[in-house]
């Protein structure tokens, strides 16, 4: 049974499954422990697309969300899931439960028809825009575990777009993943950086919001650590506009799509 159907029928069971994933993910911290085969570097490659409107970009460089628009336009099939299993199972109170994942590629149409529907480019773009408008951050790429979650055979023809909240999404378990693995499994966008300027007054809002533990306070100032995947949530919540997200590589979008294509064929 797919995650979406299970969540609609038995949210408590999904919550137990998520708690189990949390416990298992902590094993990644044990010295010598190997990653699960689903997380092999040749089977998973995902990245966040920050939704901040004030990202600093060179010249006429497109905003990060242009990557998602390109992928939607090029995909052979686009399937929208009508429920987010994570938010439903965890009882999310901050974001809508009816904004589920967007799957693309030939394998996307193998999804459970009771919980999803195939859509055209226009409706897929509207789904993505609605998600972003509610504050959900897209995470895009090839995610091997999604084949199991959605009950789809692995053929390397499934591209996933998960619209993440920081309270329920299973991407929060990456806080347990060693940095050496994050660099290959969950890279930043090319050329993106996150910095803290002199406006920081040490309020700690960004630390509280960073659900992968990539920010800490040092002498009452926020410091961005190497675990940062540049999702941009910290910049969104900073009350003093002290956190800046910038991209200095005009070709970042093309590079991201090229890397995704190396792991999955979606068109």
Break the fold down into its secondary structure elements and pairings.
Layout: H1 3-9, H2 11-25, E1 45-48, H3 65-74, E2 78-81, H4 85-90, E3 102-104, E4 116-118, H5 121-133, E5 137-142, H6 144-149, E6 159-164, H7 179-185, E7 192-196, H8 205-209, E8 215-218, E9 221-224, H9 233-237, E10 243-247, H10 252-261
Antiparallel strand pairs: 1-5, 2-3, 2-4, 3-6, 5-6, 7-10, 8-9
Jot down its keywords.
267 residues; 6-stranded antiparallel beta sheet; two-stranded antiparallel ribbon
Task: Describe this entry's structure for a reader.
The protein is α+β, with helices and mostly antiparallel strands. The protein folds into 2 domains: about 5-50 and about 55-185 and about 250-260, no CATH class; about 190-245, Alpha-Beta Plaits (2-Layer Sandwich). The protein is about 30% helix and about 15% strand. β8 and β9 (about 220-225) form a beta hairpin. The chain starts with a helix and ends in a 6-residue tail after the last helix. Residues about 1-10 have low confidence and may be disordered.
Calculate the mean pLDDT score and round it: 86
Which ranges are low-confidence, i.e. pLDDT below 50, for 5 or more consecutive residues?
1-8
Specify the biggest β-sheet: 6 strands, antiparallel
Strand content: 15-25%
Q: What is Rg?
A: 18 Å
Biggest β-sheet: strands ordered side by side in the sheet = 1-5-6-3-2-4
Domains (count): 2
Give me the secondary-structure category. alpha+beta
What's the total helix number? 10
- Count every beta strand, where a strand is a DSSP E run of 2 or more residues: 10
Task: Give the helix proportion (percent range).
Answer: 25-40%
Shape: globular
What's the N-to-C terminus distance? 27 Å
N-to-C SSE string, H for helix and E for strand = HHEHEHEEHEHEHEHEEHEH
């Amino acid at each position: 049974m797919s995650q979406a159907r299970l969540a609609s029928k038995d949210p408590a069971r999904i919550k137990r499954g998520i708690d189990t994933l949390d416990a298992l993910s902590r094993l990644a911290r044990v010295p010598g422990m190997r990653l699960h085969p689903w997380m092999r570097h040749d089977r998973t490659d995902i990245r966040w697309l920050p939704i901040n409107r004030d990202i600093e970009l060179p010249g006429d460089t497109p905003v990060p969300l242009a990557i998602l628009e390109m992928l939607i336009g090029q995909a052979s099939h686009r399937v929208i899931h009508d429920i987010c299993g994570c938010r439903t199972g965890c009882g999310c109170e901050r974001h809508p439960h009816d904004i589920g994942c967007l799957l693309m590629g030939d394998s996307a149409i193998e999804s459970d028809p009771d919980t999803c529907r195939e859509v055209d480019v226009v409706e897929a773009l509207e789904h993505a825009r609605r998600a972003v408008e509610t504050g959900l951050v897209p995470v895009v790429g090839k995610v091997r575990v999604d084949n199991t979650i959605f009950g789809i055979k692995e053929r390397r023809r499934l591209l996933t777009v998960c619209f993440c909240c920081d309270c329920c999404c299973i991407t929060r378990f990456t806080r347990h993943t060693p940095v050496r693995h994050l660099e290959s499994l969950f890279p930043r966008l090319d050329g993106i950086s996150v910095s803290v300027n002199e406006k920081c007054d040490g309020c700690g809002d960004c630390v509280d919001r960073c659900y992968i533990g990539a920010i800490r306070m040092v002498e009452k100032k926020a410091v961005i650590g190497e675990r940062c995947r540049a999702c941009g949530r910290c910049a969104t919540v900073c009350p003093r506009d002290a956190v800046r997200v910038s991209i200095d590589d005009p070709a970042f979008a093309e590079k991201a799509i090229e890397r995704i294509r190396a792991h999955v064929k979606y068109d």
